[in-house]
Amino acid sequence: MNESTSDFxxxxxxxxxxxxxxxxxxxxxxxxxxxxxxxxxxxxxxxxRGRALPNVVKWEDLDxxxxxxxxxxxxxxxxxxxxxxxxxxxxxxxxxxxxxxNGGPVVxxxxxxxxxxxxxxxxxxxxxxxxxQQVPNAFGAxxxxxxSAGRKLAPRSEQFHTATWANRA
Length: 169
Ligand code: SF4
Ligand code: SF4
Description:
14% strand; 23% helix; flat; Alpha-Beta Plaits; 2 domains; binds iron/sulfur cluster; two-stranded antiparallel sheet; alpha+beta; 169 residues
């Protein structure tokens, strides 16, 4: 496919879509956004192109002490269990399922096992029901390079290995 937006033949088709659509090329460069996307965001393509680039760093420079866990707003939860399926099949089996009708939550995050991957919040159909919460610690940033050089990571509460956690009650 020609990556030039002027040669992009599907533009007209996507312009009629009611849902916001944006297209990236293999280098993650934004090629095209439709009118619904511009209406939804209030921005033009030229306004956003390249703005995320200063935030892109090599993986070895990421802070290993940056700790996120998922949190469920039980008031918003409709009990669809999509989050449980996603975490069970695609992440770290960090969501506990409870019997329905027991007066308690249907799903619950197991914070010790959650790796903060965000998958559950991506599949949750209820806006704002699952949010990612930072767990503060008193340790400074430690990158992979620092860790390889001998710096210690911030201790976390009891850790569950997936294989161990699979035997949970
Ligand atoms: S953030 Fe990832 S590991 Fe944590 S509960 Fe959600 S899907 Fe599971
Ligand atoms: S995906 Fe969202 S609404 Fe569905 S059970 Fe999980 S937290 Fe509740």
